[in-house]
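Morning, I've got a small favour to ask if you have a moment. It would help a lot if you went through both lines with me. Thanks so much in advance, here it is.

***
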Amino acid sequence: MIYKLIGMAVVKLARFFLRRKAAANKTLFTAIGAAMAIALLATIAGTVGYVLTRETPEA
C-alpha cells in the first residue's frame, strides 16, 4: 500500500516537473523546428536545382 502511494506521488511530481519544463522550453522547440524546416527546404531546393541543371547525354 505504501509503495503505491509513493509511486503515485512520484508520478504526480514528474508530471508537474515535465509540464513546467515543457512550457519553458516551448521557444527552444519552436526554434529547432524552424531550423529543421529551413534545412529540409534547402535540401529539396538543392536537389531540384541539381536535377534541372545536370547534363544528360543525348540518345
Remarks:
- The chain has a mean pLDDT of 83.
- DSSP finds two helices and no strands in the chain.
- The helical segments are 2-24, 26-53.
